[in-house]
Amino acid sequence: NFRYFTNRPHVTGSQVSRNHTDIFIRLWREYGFEVEVPEYQVLLSYPEEDNPNTVTLFNSATGQVEHNIILKINATEGPASTQQYPYLPYLAYATNGTVQAELVYANKGFESDFDELQRRNISVQGKIVIMRSLFGNVPNAEMHGAAGVILFPDPLDYAPEGHEDRDTYPNTPWMPPDGVQRMSLLPSSGDSLTPLFPAVDGIYQKPMKEAQTTKVPAQTISYADAKVLLSKMTGDLVPESWRGALDVAYRFGASGNTSSNFTIKLSVHNKLAITKIRNVIATIKGSEEPDRYVMIGNHRDGWLFGAADPSSGTATLAEISRVVRELVREGWQPKRTIKLCSWGGEEFGMLGSIEWSEEHDRILKQRAVAYLNTDVAVGGNFILFAQTSPMLANLIFTHTKHVKDPLDSKKSLYDSMLEKMPSRENPKLPYLSGFQFSTDNLPFCLLNGMSTADFSFFFGYKGKFVLYPVYHSQYDNYDWIKRFADPEFKHFTAMTQLLGRMLLDLSDASILPFSVTRFAYSTKKAFQSLEKSSALLQNYGVTLDRLRDAVYTFINISKDFENAIKIRDGQRNPLLLRMINDQLLQIERMFVS
Q1: Locate the Peptidase M28 domain: which residues (predicted)?
Q2: 310: cis peptide before it, omega within 30°?
Q3: How many CA atoms are closer than 13 Å to the CA of 148, on its beta-carbon side?
Q4: pLDDT-based confidence at residue 566 (cuts at 50, 70, 90)
């Protein structure tokens, strides 16, 4: 099924994306699951196919065009494919407009980068800012008065071994010079016309003129094109920490003392459209606690072929659902209800999952047990990366010990995680991350107070995990996965086994396998971070004494609670078990309003 999900572009709202939705509807109904298909009318942002965005370099002296970037290219599934698909790189929700101005380089666009520019008396007011990051901080550039923003993937992060054909895909896993990424710049997640409410019929929808877009035009380009622009820049050389890996001198560009010999004309022609998206929710009723939901999910939509993101996760979810069907056929029924979730519209701002969590907020706060997510199930083969609520730590540790490392069958996933990335707080345990990357588990954690986790096999470079180098580009395709990430699909198998084991444990365990004490200690860690600002808070008459007492009281009570649970381990009184599990479910919910 993975090959099928990646063979054509499937951006949200496209016919292929609708076909993928229909596949899950048909498949899960054939399996005998109860299937719901909730629909939402959400605001999406697309490029104009007949009027692509452009970035043009003009010679200031002659007015002549020296370089013209037309953001429309033909993409294929891989070097052996002749079938071409139009690919228009853009930044979703970037405002329309045309601006022409001098260019200023702002590193990665962090607030500290703009502080450094100010310290050097370099103003970005009325200038176009170029930044070497897909995650460039466009709002920071806007706040400092920029007229436009250009983002590019610097080869320091995406092609550190060189930029020649022999150094990049398809010969190596690294991003080719013409690789261009897509990204959403939606300032807040969820449908921007129905904030905090589901985008369903009957809900008030803000007028289109109030849609959330950037204040200035913004566009993404390749590092080959960025090299041309950067090579023309004047001004002082940037500090070493600001330099990327292009074969050019990285300079600040236009400043009060240095005029540029060229200008950049940035033209963005994105269009906004209210579009129907669909989720697919399959339900397998629980035998003992049908009103308790154990959830697992992935999003279907991709920016183009979307092999790693999201189709590796889509294929994993499909395989898990097949295994669940086989267990049901053999007479098994989960004690708690299982919900399999296929989301739409994630790339534009987690639209499908957020709208659904908003629609069912009251029910989820009362009934949901946990949500397991895999967005990029396989983006590499270096290490299993889990971003999770601390409540699920023990669950993860338990089951990674029972799944073999795909690259070394003598080791478990737990062993390889511990070896490659031990915890900073406790080197005897593997590292588990907090929520670093936004994906569909976040709304269930932040809005509904659920314990959630997201799992991905990450790419590695020089002993460290890094984002896979063709992320969100036209080269995130089946061929790249087959060549470099998982040639024998062993990591796909391991992910399916891991998520399947955790799903069954959460649905069948008499007492929920939650890590209360780990969660309590995470509040201590958060408090210690806040405590670093205690002197500043005292200037405003704010002390942290009571909060400190509350944190340490919570830790002590958590230890007592877990000890009490251990004493009752093996207990068969359903009422007592229900009481314990109800208390466990409410712990994280206490921290959301």
Answers
A1: 279-483
A2: yes
A3: 23
A4: confident
Torsion angle defined by CA atoms of residues 184, 188, 194 and 195, in that order, rounded to the nearest 10 degrees: 170
The dihedral built from the CA positions of residue 401, 404, 410 and 415, taken in this order, carries a sign that is: negative
Domain boundaries, the chain: 1-38+279-422+455-508, 51-270, 516-590
**Do the two domains 1-38+279-422+455-508 and 51-270 of this chain adopt the same fold?**
no
Please choose, from the candidates 414, 374, 377, the residue with its C-alpha nearest in 3D space to the C-alpha of residue 397: 414
Gap between the Cα atoms of 206 and 138, Å rounded: 24
Q: For 461, phi and psi rounded to 5 degrees?
A: -150, 125
8 A C-beta contact, residue 308 and residue 471? yes
Give catalytic residue positions: 346
| CB distance 210 to 193 below 8 Å | yes
What DSSP designation does 473 have?
B
* Rounded distance between C-alpha atoms, residue 194 and residue 428, angstroms: 46
Apex 195 CA angle, 270 and 359, nearest 5 = 115
Q: What is the pLDDT of residue 134?
A: 76
* pLDDT at 569 exceeding the cut of 90: no
Stated as kind and residue range, the H or E segment containing 561 is helix 545-567
Torsion sign (Cα): 24, 25, 26, 28: positive
Element (H, E) at 384: strand 383-388
d(CA 592, CA 558): 19
Phi, psi of 451 (to 5 degrees): -80, 125
Alpha-carbon distances, residue 305 vs 9, 157, 312, 392, 563 (angstroms) = 4, 22, 11, 32, 50
Element at 396 (helix H, strand E): helix 393-400
Distance CA 453, CA 526 (A): 19
CA proximity to 443, closest of 542, 340, 358: 358
Report how far residue 471's alpha carbon sits from residue 489's, in angstroms, rounded to the nearest whole number. 19
Give the E-state strand segments of 251-358 in sequence order: 262-268, 271-278, 280-284, 289-299, 336-343
Phi, psi of 404 (to 5 degrees): -75, 145
For the chain, give percent helix, strand, coil, nearest 5: 35, 20, 45
Cβ atoms of residues 30 and 318 within 8 Å: no
Do 423 and 525 form a contact (C-beta atoms < 8 A)?
A: no
The string over 482-515, giving b where at least 16 C-beta atoms fall within 10 Å of a residue's C-beta and e elsewhere, is bbbbbeebbbbbbbbbbbbbbbbebbbbbbbbbb
Q: Is 277 exposed, middle or buried (0-12, 13-18, 19+ CB in 10 A)?
A: buried
CATH topology of domain 51-270: Glucose Oxidase; domain 1 (3.50.30)
Q: Mark residue 107 as left, alpha or beta (left: phi above 0; alpha: psi -120 to 50; beta: remaining).
A: left
Considering only residues 80 and 492, tell me which one the structure prediction assigns the higher pLDDT: 492
Output the CATH code of domain 1-38+279-422+455-508: 3.40.630.10
Q: How confident is the model at residue 258 (pLDDT cuts 50, 70, 90)?
A: low
Whose tokens are 């109800």? That residue is 582
For residue range 338-353, what is the model confidence (pLDDT) as tens digits? 999 999 999 999 999 9
187: tokens are: 């300032």
Per the listing, tokens 């205690």 go with: 534
SS (H, E, C) 64-115: CEEEEEECCEEECCCCCCCCCEEECCCEECCCCEEEEECEEECCCCCHHHHH
